[in-house]
Q: What sequence folds into this?
């Protein structure tokens, strides 16, 4: 039984190494993925507004040690606005037809800013029935009145 082991076909038993690979589909796929990622990366920063929720954390304990300051709160519901101060003073701003009275709100917030020039924060408390775009428009009016630190809360929450 002196038979030799069978050899694979081809020249010298080796596979050819000069296979042609078409890179055009790979480059097309890569360019599509890259352009998609670049286009969508821009949209993540466009419509963003920084809002902080005020809670009973370290920031809440820190503010209790300071002298009592006036807290400004803006309530939004289906009937309009109510601007309130922690001193007990409140100002109702009724609806203007079918929409909220943004001009009157701007006047009241500007007056509050002149009364309290050191205040940069305001709490916006919204009812569940208020449409999101109207809350954002309200927050834009507050930012326009120089209240840059806006805390957004549900109307049912305390503090």
A:
């Amino acid at each position: 039984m002196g038979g030799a082991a069978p050899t694979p076909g081809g020249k010298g038993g080796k596979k050819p190494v000069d296979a042609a690979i078409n890179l055009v589909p790979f480059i097309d796929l890569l360019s599509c993925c890259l352009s998609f990622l670049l286009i969508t990366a821009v949209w993540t920063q466009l419509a963003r507004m920084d809002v902080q929720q005020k809670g009973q954390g370290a920031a809440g304990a820190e503010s209790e040690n300071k002298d009592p300051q006036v807290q400004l709160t803006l309530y939004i519901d289906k009937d309009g606005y109510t601007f309130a101060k922690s001193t007990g003073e409140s100002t109702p701003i009724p609806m203007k037809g079918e929409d909220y009275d943004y001009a009157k709100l701007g006047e009241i917030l500007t007056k509050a800013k002149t009364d309290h020039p050191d205040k940069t924060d305001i709490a916006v408390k919204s009812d569940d029935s208020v449409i999101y775009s109207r809350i954002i428009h309200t927050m834009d009016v507050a930012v326009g009145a120089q209240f840059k630190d806006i805390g957004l809360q549900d109307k049912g929450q305390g503090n």
About this structure: The helical segments are 24-43, 58-65, 102-115, 132-144. DSSP finds four helices and five strands in the chain. The two ends are 96 Å apart (CA to CA).
